[in-house]
Specification:
heterodimer, A: mainly alpha
Chain lengths: ~270, ~260
């Protein structure tokens, strides 16, 4: 039991180190991607800020919007997964070939890349948040360490789920040349359903209901609401985490099916 | 000189269109993608208007006019700028720019206009269609001076967008290893989705004077809805001329740094 665990730690150590060094070469590019990632919530915040004025919108005052969208910036960066784009390229251009002959499933390399990338970028966003909070009380969170620990757990579940969604969608490249278009469609829908453009509480109730019934709330909105304190009561927290775990299991299963069926179809182009 | 230029450009574009016509499925995909993006944008605005009656003093259909302009400009960006000057960073990095520089043509013009993604021109049509529909819903028929002002402001907007691309992509000569500089434009252009009056003061200042995206969508849309007097189109043209000149200066300064990287 101990031996395999140590073996995996060694493997992941090497993979993460490698990914970290690769990212180091592209650090300027990564800063630009990060900048691009925070523009959408920043613009949304600007608009809701104007709409809220001195009053409230659906229970949200200006400061609530500020906290919400800062949390979106951080948690979206922590949970976003670009893997469908990589997989699409690996499959179409044959870069999957050498990964298949390694004694390690290619998903592990992708997970390690995600860890290295997010450790770097999310810590920058967190630092910026802290600096902004020093000057601007609106984005300060109340000191609730217990809530932060639970949020961390929810973020891990969300990150894992978004990874499997992205990976599974990328695997569709075994069948279609438009796998990334499907991912963009998913991103467009999640703009609303995952709470990227507004808190789910401001959506029409029926739409918010769909977001909760499917996996979208678990992707981003739930961890964000946890952090800002919009989800309260042990019941609601447990139900949210349960939903996340359930959808994570669903996407892991989908990923396994897509992988085993897809690899059998794979024609291995390129050299 | 002029005529030769046009002949060169004509030849490139003809070749381009012939090439693209082979991939007709891309046309359907491109139109579907645009319709999806337009629907998302409309739903976003509808969501805002569930909670407010006006955004920056604009009502719903006025913002839809602006979204139409946004889409039309997106068409220009995706059809001309991204496949052209958007590839610059990659070429500076790989040294392919050498091949451009030895040609007896103006490098800036060549880099900017050599390739077209013709299918994306449908975005221009769909965007203007959306703007027209929204105008009808507003019950406003633009007067002739308003239409003329809109045409001038829209052309000026295209020039401003082009100038922003040239200035941003010129950064590639200083930051050779950054392959995704085009992302900077996407980040900035995100702000053009809404009228500048909707933003807090500091952002508004930024968008009007420093990164002039206010002139890309807010001004043409205002000209069309009659929010601004038609004379403002002349100011827009002036802004476009200044932006173009600045971009040209930046490009020249940047090109001087190019040392070539191909082997």
């Amino acid at each position: 039991m101990i031996e395999p665990a140590r073996e995996w730690a060694r493997r992941y150590g090497a993979l993460i180190r490698n990914a970290w060094l690769v990212d180091l070469q592209y650090r300027a590019s990564i800063v630009l991607w990060m900048l691009w990632g925070v523009t959408e919530p920043a613009i949304a915040l600007g608009i809701w800020w104007a709409i809220a004025g001195e009053g409230q919108v659906g229970g949200y005052a200006r400061a609530d919007f500020a906290r919400y969208f800062f949390a979106v910036m951080l948690i979206n960066q922590l949970t976003i997964a670009w893997d469908s784009w990589y997989l699409d390229r690996w499959i179409r251009e044959g870069e999957l070939n050498f990964r298949l002959v390694r004694p390690l499933h290619p998903a592990h390399e992708a997970v390690a890349e995600n860890i290295a990338y997010k450790a770097r970028t999310a810590s920058v966003i967190l630092l910026v948040w802290l600096l902004v909070a020093a000057a601007w009380p609106a984005v300060r969170l109340p000191f609730t360490p217990g809530r932060w620990v639970v949020t961390l757990f929810a973020v891990l579940l969300a990150a894992a789920m978004r990874f499997f969604i992205s990976f599974t969608t990328g695997l569709l490249a075994f069948w279609t040349s438009r796998a990334t278009a499907i991912m963009e469609l998913h991103a467009g829908v999640s703009l609303f359903l995952a709470g990227r453009i507004a808190p789910l509480a401001l959506l029409p109730p029926a739409v918010a209901g769909v977001a909760g019934a499917l996996w979208f709330r678990s992707m981003l909105s739930f961890p964000v609401d946890l952090l800002t304190g919009a989800v309260h009561g042990t019941d609601a927290v447990v139900r949210g985490l349960g939903g996340q775990a359930m959808w994570l299991a669903f996407w892991i299963a989908a990923c396994r099916i897509a992988w085993s069926r897809g690899v059998r179809r794979y024609g291995a182009v390129g050299g | 000189m002029k005529a030769r230029w046009l002949r060169v450009l004509g030849a490139f574009w003809r070749l381009n269109v012939v090439e693209e016509l082979q991939y007709r499925a891309n046309f359907v995909a491109s139109v579907l993608g645009t319709l999806f993006n337009m629907a998302t944008a409309l739903l976003t605005v509808a969501l805002f208007f569930r909670h407010t009656a006006a955004l920056g003093g604009w009502d719903y259909w006025e913002i839809v006019v602006l979204l139409g302009v946004f889409n039309a400009l997106t068409g220009v960006i995706e059809a001309v700028l991204r496949p052209g000057i958007g590839q610059l960073a990659e070429e500076v990095r790989g040294g392919e720019l050498d091949l451009v520089l030895v040609k007896p043509v103006d490098p800036q013009a060549f880099v900017s206009f050599r390739r077209l993604d013709v299918w994306r021109f449908t975005d221009v049509v769909l965007g203007l269609g959306l703007a027209g529909y929204a105008l009808a819903r507003l019950g406003r028929v633009p007067t002739l001076p308003q239409l003329a002002a809109f045409a001038v402001a829209l052309a000026a907007a295209a020039v401003v967008v082009y100038a922003i691309w040239v200035a941003l992509m010129s950064l590639a000569f200083w930051f050779v290893s950054v392959e995704n500089i085009a992302v900077l434009f996407d980040a900035v252009y995100e702000g053009a989705r809404y009228p500048v009056s909707a933003y807090p003061g500091a952002l508004r200042f930024l968008f009007v004077y420093l990164i002039p995206i206010a002139w890309t969508t807010t001004i043409p849309a205002s000209a069309l809805t009659g929010r601004l007097r038609p004379e403002l189109a002349l100011v827009a043209a002036l802004v476009a001329a200044v932006a173009f000149a600045v971009a040209r200066v930046v490009w020249r300064a940047a090109l001087k740094r190019y040392a070539g990287a191909s082997g």
